[in-house]
Amino acid sequence: MYEFLTQNSDLILKLVLAVGLGMIIGAERILAHKEAGMKTHALVSLGSALFIIISEMIVLKYGDIGGFDPTRIASQVIVGIGFLGAGSIIFQGNRLLGLTTAGGLWVTAGIGMATGFGFYGLAIITTFIVLLVLVLMNILERPIRRMFDGVDKPEAK
Predict the structure, then answer these.
(1) How much is the pLDDT for 19?
(2) pLDDT for 10-35, tens place per residue?
């Protein structure tokens, strides 16, 4: 077991960091009372990192094959997350809900991809910036929303 861990320590670090960063963003979403929480964001980040790691492994194994483009995997991760995000967007009455959740899932996939490629600093900085946007914008939007429509949150029905 020790040999497995030492031989695969870089892969394990990538996957664990991806899960951790996704969980941090998901924790903020739970505190904001949103449906997509820690598990969802952790899995999106983990899955994205996994697909990037797979694409790197494919390059190592089949890189000498002509016409092979491993970057297609990364581009398809983005497309797949788009479908997941689209599923989180709903109309409730005349209000459109879930756009921030969709955007959060999309950027969390990017964080997972950065982690999968080994760009740890980029992934950590992006996670910090995402949290700043989600927390600070939530604080700043409340008085603006009250000023224009007198409603702090959408009505629960």
Answers:
(1) 98
(2) 999 999 999 999 999 999 999 999 88
The dihedrals phi and psi of 150, each to the nearest 5 degrees, come to: 70, 15
Query: 3-class SS at 95?
Result: strand
Rounded Cα gap, residues 147 and 150, in angstroms: 6
- Enumerate the domain spans of the chain: 2-149
Strands (DSSP E) contained in 27-108 are 90-92, 95-97
Residue 34: Cβ within 10 Å count = 18
Contact 73, 62 (CB under 8 A): no
Cβ distance 29 to 41 under 8 Å?
yes
Angstrom CA distances, 89 to 29, 85, 95, 113, 127, stand at 15, 7, 11, 23, 22
